[in-house]
Amino acid sequence: MRRKLRVAAYAVCVRDGQLLLARSPTADGTPEWVLPGGGMEFGEDPYDTVRREVTEETGYRIEVTGLLGVDSLRLTLPDRLLGRSTDHHGLRLIYSGRITGGELRNEVNGSTDLAAWHDLTAVPALTRVPLVDIALRMWRERPATGHLETGSGPRETEAAE
């Protein structure tokens, strides 16, 4: 089994009771809402990653206002092309951010196709990746350790994020 580590940085941007999200199509084409953010490039600082990714996916520039926490996810992904699966470990850094400039726009030729503000009260009804709920919980609770208590070791789930 192939092993892969992916480090990514995401932003929780809340303004006037609304959360900034981006929409990403899944492998089967079903869209789901995600936090703006994504994978670090080799040698890139995660602080720079989150600012770059938010701009790419939403058109906004942000000021990083804090590190909310770190989430770890481990899952097995099937490889349909090579016939072998991947032991995937995602390490996700969750920041809070404040919009400082730019204009809302959709990403072109990227991993997302739509960016939008959603009322915080409407988020539970959206089709979204679990990381949205994890990050909102971090934003609300501000755990001193930067870690939500969910058991020991990386969480495991069946869906890729």
Secondary structure elements and pairings:
Layout lengths: L1 E11 L1 E2 L2 E8 L5 E4 L2 E3 L6 H13 L1 E18 L8 E17 L11 E6 L10 H12 L13 E2 L5
Parallel strand pairs: 1-7, 6-9
Antiparallel strand pairs: 1-5, 2-3, 3-4, 3-8, 6-7
What does this molecule look like?
- Helices cover 16% and strands 44% of the residues.
- It is of the alpha+beta class and 161 residues long.
- It has a single domain, classed as Nucleoside Triphosphate Pyrophosphohydrolase, CATH 3.90.79.10.
- The two termini are 20 Å apart.
**SS strand fraction:** 35-45%
| End-to-end CA span | 20 Å
Structural class: alpha+beta
* Shape annotation: globular
Which sheet architecture does the biggest sheet show?
5 strands, mixed
Q: Order of strands across the biggest sheet?
A: 5-1-7-6-9
Give start-end ranges of low-pLDDT stretches. Answer: 156-161
Look at the structure and give the CATH class. Answer: Alpha Beta
For CATH, the homologous superfamily is named as Nucleoside Triphosphate Pyrophosphohydrolase
Count of domains: 1
Kindly summarize this structure in a few lines.
With 161 residues, this protein is an alpha+beta fold. It has helices at 46-58, 130-141; strands spanning 2-12, 14-15, 18-25, 31-34, 37-39, 60-77, 86-102, 114-119, 155-156. Residues 156-161 have low confidence and may be disordered.
Question: What key attributes describe this structure?
Answer:
disordered C terminus; Nucleoside Triphosphate Pyrophosphohydrolase; 5-stranded mixed sheet; alpha+beta; 4-stranded antiparallel sheet; 161 residues; globular
